[in-house]
Amino acid sequence: MKVTYYLEVTSSWCYWSEPMWAELKRRYEGRVEFQWKIAKMSPSDWPVSRGLQGTIRG
């Protein structure tokens, strides 16, 4: 079996998912192939912020 972790580097979900990812790798070591890939998210995939609206321009 292969498990792929899609990592969105600008999301705080990375912070919350890392402990579970480490536990899964520990628990199923040798039985499951683990890999990760950078997630490519389109702007429509992101939730709408309640704070800042619009595009930040520099």
Q: Report the C-alpha radius of gyration, rounded.
A: 15 Å
Query: SS-based structural class?
Result: alpha+beta
Shape: elongated
Q: If you average the pLDDT, what whole number results? A: 82
Distance between the termini: 45 Å
Percentage of residues in helical conformation: 25-40%
Number of helices: 1
List low-confidence stretches.
Answer: none
How would you characterize this protein structure?
This protein is an alpha+beta fold. It has a domain at 2-41. It is built from one helix and two strands, in the order βαβ. It has one helix at 13-27, and strands spanning 2-7, 33-38. A two-stranded parallel sheet has the order 1-2. The longest helix is centred in the middle third of the chain and has 15 residues, at 13-27. It is elongated. The N and C termini lie far apart (45 Å).
Helix and strand topology:
Blueprint: E1 2-7, H1 13-27, E2 33-38
Parallel strand pairs: 1-2
Summarize, please.
Helix 1 (13-27) links the parallel strand 1 (2-7) and strand 2. It is built from one helix and two strands, in the order βαβ. The chain has one helix at residues 13-27, and strands at 2-7, 33-38.
Task: List the defining traits of the structure above.
single chain, 58 residues, alpha+beta, two-stranded parallel ribbon, 2 strands
